[in-house]
Amino acid sequence: EEVPSQTFDNKDYFCGKETFPVYESIFTEEGETIRKIAVETEKPPQIEIHVWTIRKGILRHFYVEKVSKREFEELPYFKQITRTTPSQWKIFSEGEAQISQMCESRVCRTELEDLVKVLYLEKSEKGHC
Fold first, then answer.
1. Could you tell me if 108 and 55 are in contact, meaning their C-beta atoms sit under 8 angstroms apart?
2. Residue-range domain boundaries for the chain
3. At a CB cut-off of 8 Å and minimum separation 6, what does 63 contact?
4. C-alpha dihedral, 103 to 53 to 115 to 67, nearest 10°
5. What rounded mean pLDDT belongs to the chain?
6. Rounded CA separation 1/4 (Å)
7. Residue 104 gets which letter from DSSP?
């Protein structure tokens, strides 16, 4: 029996909650990994991109940039990884601020991975919203 595929836009999948698409881009150059997590917001209509530069597991540089949707569409490497709610994004942003201070002097690979997992919503069982 085939399981019906879920699309990211299916409101039932997220119990009708407001969600934003989340994108990720990871590439490595000269021994550094540049990892970008982006969220698309409606008010204002823009893309907020969180950029992490990681060298040997240590977060060397972190910043946030905001671009228009049109500018974002022209950027390479991004793929949609999930959708998230405003409250989950807030948890992500606050955790990111703590990690950026914590990880300036030590390896934080697992902390960064766990932080990204915050953005993934639990699939709700039908009738349990």
1. no
2. 20-119
3. 50, 51
4. 130
5. 81
6. 9
7. T
